[in-house]
Request: fold
Amino acid sequence: MSTTAGPRRAGRREWVGLAVLALACLLYVMDLTVLQLAIPQLSEDLLPTSTQLLWIIDIYGFMVAGALVTMGTLGDRIGRRRLLLGGAVAFGLVSVLTAFSTTPEMLIVSRALLGIAGATIAPSTLSLIFHMFTDPKQRSAAVGVWIGAFSAGSAVGPVLGGIMLEFFWWGSVFLLALPVMGALLILGPRVLPEYRDPAAGRLDVLSAAMSVVALLAVVYGIKQIAQDGPGTVALLAIAAGVLVGALWVRRQRRIPEPMIDVRLFRIRAFDAALLVNFLSIFVMIGYFLYIAQYLQLVMSLSPLEAGLWSLPSAAAFVVSSQLAPRMLGRVRPAYTVAAGLAAAAAGMSVLATVEVDHGLAALITSSVVISFGLGPVFGLATEMVVGSAPEEKAGAASGISETAAELGGALGIAVLGSIGIAIYRGGVSAGLPAGIPDAAAQAARDTLGGAVGAAAQLPGPVGAELLAVSRQAFVDGLQLTSLIAAGIAALLSVVAVLALRSVAAAADAAAGDPGPDAEETEPEACPA
Reply:
């Protein structure tokens, strides 16, 4: 069979460029993972309320989610390499501002700016990969490396963050981005190609603003409902976000140069892959929020020890994401995704068995199973989303893919985190020892970190009782949210089989067999 008409195969320069893009992904994800380890010290130093602490954690993801589509579209217009390098500069500068924040409010604003800068990285790296690697097998391998870089960042971040926290203040963990940014700026111009949509027009600023407002309003409303129950402000925020979103979609259909071609959403595999990406990140980030706090505040491990215990799950993620392209020769993506989600559900169920006085073995086992299951899921879902779009729209499509992922992560933190906080507050309020000063009681009700600090200032028996009550309440919240996440993952595994069954295995696609129902996934509704 002749291969002269086949896609161009990538050479050494493309693979070196992929290594540079992986470096950018390390920068992108390290900022999130190191924060988890810094939460106890941060809470003790800045004394944020529980609401402020949640905003500190998830405002980064919210802002990334709100800006990703805009940044993906901007990259198609001004050049993806230019946007990536400019974003890396901004990310480094804002990291310095974040590191030296002196109040919770300053840290929230800094993290929001960091999210806007971070939004330039993921869609730029992914769309460049789809431009550099046109051969399907090489592209699958490259996407696997891209996914693996995120998990490698989640492994390197806690270890380096733990080392920094052993010797320096909590803000030092954000300075880890500086050498990575420097290496990216030196190597990027030499090995990365520039690519932009030759037919791109001007960026529609109004559409960009509307997309951010719509996402943030809906997220804010959901967060408030999860934390405080349904209220007028929360419901109005969601309604406003939905309305602005509907107007945004209407605008994209009418203007000559839309941010994204909304007809992409008529492609069945595109929609199903987006849903899988969204909910998979939702359950993974939702449980990950608790692990670093459990290791440090319940098991009393040091930040470095907690970081080292995160290595097994990160290694499992790297291994599974790299094995995925090799497993897909004859296995349909639907079955691979479903098996991975079922494994994640099993891991979440194991995590729900963690107790205050014994839980390290269950926690590590569950984390490894969850990571090994979800590694292939993220790579496959991402490839299906971006591969459905024309090449010149890859930036916008990758922006949509990463928006779904970041929004899923941010909502996982907001919803599952808020449910955990509600359980925690209820448990602490019901079990507070008699005679505790009001200030100590309020600190204990806000966060587990506040409870640990308050217990250290109280007489021995009273402090020990407060600490025991607080730790049990935290573990109760961890158990419930793990069970919720397990249920979502199990249901999603069934959805994946039904919704993605039309996507062919790699070998079948190469042989010209697109799979059953292929006519439903033809992208005729999304012309270039």
